[in-house]
Specification:
The chain is α/β, with parallel strands linked by helices. The chain contains 39 helices and 23 strands. The structure holds flavin-adenine dinucleotide (FAD). Flavin-adenine dinucleotide binds near residues 350, 375, 379, 402 and 427.
């Protein structure tokens, strides 16, 4: 049985919701328009919304902090961006030197003076530093007033002065106060009472990374519920305060593929929180997070709504995002749940806060479409359609409408009034004050609840930046509300009319697989957050298990190698002559065939190479991408001769040709994608190939070769020549008909091949080598701990650390090292080591016993000479327990350790450059990670540690064909980079042709000028 089945008492089929996740946008929009949510009141609503805008503008002259800020610092301005970056990072940065560097860098990167005095808002001016610094703390003289820009520049040079540092921290604090209702729940309740707010309190913070985080959040929610319950004095879920809970705060792995763990470990926490909320008779809303988590959250909600211990409580609720195409379906299903469980549910309707992230995730995943609409008008109309459904399901569902948009608010009010359904409106603390004040003045029976973040400023700021980003967009209502240059009628324009005029998807947001067109389509992916998609892969693995692995292809004998070279050399001439277009066509067919076989290939990768399902999907996609990418280069650069310049009476051309027969030698860690990439590059360039896979993974290679042949490639152009490196590999490389070698693997083998090629008499042939690396990630004190931990865990332990790009050494500042290392160790505890074909597995086995033994020997050295911080348990067999160890100095590692072992090194203040230089002296140069908010830090590390692939504020694995051409320098490889624009040149020879056209009497082209 599959371990990710969700053991609920569910009777609702939530998977229906997932079936609609990537619905065609045209169809989804047509359904929205068919629903005609406001007919016949559209005009009345529009006019009411315009009145609201006028009223809000009058009020906003006194309020409107965020609105003023966004008006002054659009996110498209360098000042807006610099300020956000500073706000997000400054307070968590513990050391003064780095704080100063951050302030200096961000201040000098923008033109603050241009913003001074342009707004009456303290927030804006505090943001601009100017008022704070010039007006109150550093009184400028007359000269400075004449030249404010110069004054601020000089000021930036003095940021080390404590007074300025304090002023800036104070300015950030002013920003923080606008968004946090209180640093503690007690303070927040007191402020709410002073302002007569009814609130839903949110305990701020990043999602849990460790079980300790999850426990801390649970305690904080329970404490808050106690306080809120006492303050509510029996007001009940509708009239009193409530709590909002983010499920990602209650478990470090709140993911669909971990449903069983979520059920066993997260659910009990959630239940305790719900029971406390029920006992206090307050409302509890489950916030909506990423689309991938929707079904999981609905399943948890269903369990809660059937709990006997919550009987009689009507405060349970959830947030539903209208920007998701399946929003209306979710509302209907939740209503079904309310009826089936006999419990009234509260539903907060939001548009959604993760739109850009959803777009990015779908593009990275290569999905058919997006879970969200691509036009703002569609989102706005979807909100109305969802609102109408929600109101229609009253009283089973109680509608709570969260928006800062005047039109949306007026429309919802009209819908509720028409249906006679009681409901409430909601806004975020610090936003939409003016609009909702206008609404309060207009409607006495439309109560308001304020979503009120509670926590420290350090925790707040990433949240604040998120809100500013979301609302600073040009399309955002908050952004335009106060802009007097836009008439109220326009600000409150009717989205239904707009959508009718332009129902198509956004012209600049093509479907995820089409973003690279016309060059090529991106490889199709599989969304593993959908149960049925996971099921496809699990079934493929089960089928393979019952049928057994295909037979191992026999080792290539010397005679077979001779014959293969001879046949390949013969066939290569016409293949080269066929030209790039013809070769591209074939490679595109191979890509399609690879995609069509994805489930089987993923299963084979799991069983022969120990790859997890997610890694397998990534690998299959990369193989397809290689084929299409090289096809596009061949079509562009090798379609025929390219003309070159020359004098009158002469014509010149350059043409690329295949070199002959290439030997491709690939490793076991990417047995499909690197194998296919090498072969596809050689074939695209017009070469024939003899391909030797790693000894451990010949079956996957045989399968890939079969797909090339089935697509129509002459079998003699691609021969599989499996066998040992020292036998078959050596024979291939030394063979007189070998015209070039493409190799990926260990550095020592690369040395051996290099020597073997050098020893040959005859034409000197190219050698393309990609080898290992000693890959490090440098962190400074401005980095966000949670991001560092996510990226370090993925980079070090993903694929069981068996990637050449994997992270081996994490270099962290002494000031934050203890906390970072503790969180890393805690996050490791949540890793699952086991069967790679189980979707819940994070870390599969290592490739063979020899690899396991080498890793174990290294751990023994770590035990003697370093400090093991954490070692997980691993099942018997080839599973190697992920290990975290602190090493004494940067010179400790001299060779790549190929497995799930992460070393961490702390550097003292001022010790960064020494660590970087020591690392660079090892002369590897493959991947490098940098986590910092300081551009200067990133530049310094890049200067000190030259490598092929540098990644800033992200993981260091998963290079994408065409996007991050991959390959190292120094001991890590020769280039050219795989998946890069120059990848094919080493596989080719260049031939020129010059014709003296004047030889026949003159240049007719010249006469025709
Ligand atoms: C009380 C409250 C609670 C909230 N809780 C949650 C929650 O639990 N989960 C959550 O995700 N959000 C939550 N939000 C955030 C909410 O989603 C945002 O505030 C909301 O997106 C802003 O909507 P609006 O109607 O105020 O603004 P508007 O400016 O009218 O709309 C902005 C919305 O349009 C979307 N949009 C922008 N451009 C496009 C485009 N080209 N195509 C499609 N859509 C586009 C944005 O992503 C955003 O969703 C909450 C908000 C409030 C007020």
């Amino acid at each position: 049985m599959q371990s990710d089945a969700f053991p609920t008492v569910a009777s609702i089929d939530w998977d229906v919701v997932d079936a609609l996740k990537y619905e065609d946008e045209g169809r989804a929009v047509a359904a929205l328009l068919d629903a005609e949510p406001l007919a016949p009141d559209a005009e009345a609503v529009r006019s009411e919304a315009a009145d609201l805008v006028r009223a809000a503008r009058r009020i906003a002259r006194r309020q409107g902090v965020v609105e003023s800020f966004l008006q002054e610092f659009g996110l498209s301005t360098p000042e807006g961006l610099a300020l956000m970056c500073l706000a997000e990072a400054l307070l968590r940065t513990p050391d003064e030197a780095t704080r100063d560097a951050l302030i200096a860098e961000k201040i000098s990167s923008a033109d603050w003076a241009a913003h001074l005095g342009r707004s009456d808002s303290l927030f804006v001016n505090a943001g601009a530093w100017g008022l704070m610094l010039t007006g109150r703390l550093v009184e400028p003289d007359e000269g400075a007033r004449q030249d404010l820009a110069g004054f601020l520049r000089r000021l930036a040079g003095r940021v080390g002065e404590p007074v300025i540092r304090r002023a800036i921290a104070a300015a950030i604090g002013v920003m923080g106060d606008q968004f946090v209702l209180g640093r503690t729940i007690g303070a927040a309740l007191a402020r709410a009472a002073r302002n007569s707010f009814v609130c839903s309190f949110d305990m701020l913070g990043e999602g849990a990374r460790t079980f300790a985080d999850a426990e801390r959040y649970e305690r904080s929610y329970l404490h808050a519920i106690g306080a809120v319950g006492a303050a509510s004095r029996g007001a009940g879920p509708e009239a009193g305060h409530g709590i909002s809970v983010k499920l990602s705060a209650l478990h470090p792995r709140y993911e669909a593929a971990k449903a069983a763990r979520v059920s066993a470990e997260l659910y009990p926490r959630l239940l305790r929180i719900a029971e406390a909320a029920a006992a206090a008779d307050i409302n509890l809303t489950v916030d909506a997070e990423e689309a991938d988590r929707l079904v999981l959250s609905l399943q948890l909600l269903e369990r809660l709504s059937r709990e006997p211990s919550l009987e009689g409580w009507s405060g349970l609720g959830l947030a539903v995002q209208a920007y998701q195409k399946r929003g209306p379906a979710v509302i209907d299903k939740v209503a079904e749940l309310a009826r089936a469980s006999g419990r009234r549910l509260m539903v907060r309707l939001v548009k959604g806060a993760y739109w850009d992230a959803e777009i990015k995730r779908s593009q990275i995943g290569g999905y058919d479409d997006y879970p969200v609409f691509t036009t703002k008008a569609a989102t706005d109309v979807a909100y109305l359609v969802c609102a109408e459904r929600l109101i229609g399901h009253s009283p089973e569902l109680c509608g709570q409408f969260a928006t800062h948009n005047a039109y949306t608010l007026a429309a919802v009010r009209r819908l509720a009034e028409r249906a006679g359904a009681p409901c409430e409106r909601q806004r975020l603390h610090g936003m939409g004050e003016a609009l909702h004040a206008a609404a309060s003045a207009r409607w006495s029976d439309f109560p308001l609840r304020v979503y009120a973040p509670v926590g420290s400023h350090e925790d707040l700021l990433p949240y604040l930046v998120r809100r500013l980003l979301e609302n600073g967009a040009n399309t955002s209502f908050v952004h335009v509300l106060l802009d007097d240059s836009i008439p109220p009628d326009l600000v409150a324009g009717d989205p239904i009319a707009a959508l009718r005029v332009a129902p198509a998807r956004h012209p600049r947001i093509p479907r995820p697989r089409e973003i690279l067109l016309p060059e090529r389509c991106a490889a199709a992916g599989i969304d593993l957050s959908i149960a049925s998609e996971r099921g496809r892969l699990v079934s493929a693995a089960a089928m393979l298990d019952s049928a057994g692995l295909p037979p191992t292809p026999p080792d290539a004998s010397p005679e077979r190698i001779d014959r293969a070279f001879a046949a390949a050399a013969w066939a290569q001439r016409s293949w080269d002559g066929a030209g790039g277009i013809e070769r591209g066509r074939l490679l595109r067919k191979v890509a399609d065939a690879i995609e069509a076989e994805l489930p089987r290939l993923v299963a084979l990768l799991a069983r022969e190479a120990g790859k997890t399902l997610a890694d397998g999907v990534g690998e299959v996609r990369e193989a397809a991408d290689f084929c299409r990418f090289y096809a596009a280069i061949a079509e562009r650069d090798m379609a025929g001769p390219s003309p070159l310049p020359g004098p009158a009476g002469e014509r010149n051309w350059l043409q690329l040709h295949g070199r002959g027969v290439f030997v491709a030698i690939s490793p076991w860690n990417f047995p499909l994608s690197i194998f296919t990439g090498q072969v596809a590059a050689a074939l695209a360039a017009g070469d024939a190939v003899l391909a030797k896979p790693a000894e451990q993974t010949p079956r996957i290679a045989a399968e890939a070769v079969g797909l090339f042949h089935a697509a129509g490639l002459d079998p003699t152009l691609l021969a599989l020549t499996p066998g040992g490196g020292e036998t078959v590999g050596e024979a291939l490389v030394r063979h007189p008909r070998c015209d070039g070698v493409a190799f990926t693997g260990g550095t020592d083998t690369a040395f051996a091949i290099n020597r073997a090629l050098a020893a040959r008499d005859g034409p000197i042939v190219p050698f393309i080598a990609e080898t290992g690396g000693l890959n490090a990630m440098f962190v400074d004190t401005t980095a966000l701990k949670e991001q560092v931990v996510d990226d370090a865990i993925l980079s070090a332990f993903g694929s069981a650390g068996q990637r050449c790009s994997a992270l081996r050494l994490l270099i962290v500042p002494a000031e934050t090292a203890d906390e970072l290392i503790a969180t890393l160790a805690g996050a490791m505890e949540a890793l699952v080591v086991g069967d790679p074909a189980d979707p819940a597995t994070d870390v599969g086995p290592v490739i063979d016993r020899a690899a396991w033994d080498a890793l174990e020997a290294h751990v023994e050295r770590l035990e003697r000479e370093a400090r093991i911080v954490r070692r997980l348990n691993a099942p018997e067999g080839l599973f190697f327990a992920p290990t975290l160890a602190e090493i004494p100095d940067a010179g400790f590692l001299t060779r790549e350790v190929f497995g799930p072992i992460l070393h961490v090194l702390r550097y003292p203040p001022g010790g960064l450059a020494a660590a970087a230089r020591t690392l660079a002296r090892a002369r590897y140069g493959l991947t490098l990670g940098i986590h910092s908010r300081l551009d200067g830090f990133a530049e310094e590390i890049r200067r000190l540690v030259p490598v092929g692939n540098t990644y800033v504020n992200r993981s260091i694995i998963g290079a994408v064909v065409g996007e991050q051409p991959f390959g190292g320098e120094g001991l890590s490889g020769t280039g050219p980079k795989a998946g890069g624009p120059y990848a094919l040149t080493r596989f080719t020879v260049e031939r020129t042709l010059s014709v003296n056209t004047a030889a026949q009497g003159g240049d007719p082209a010249l006469f025709d000028l």
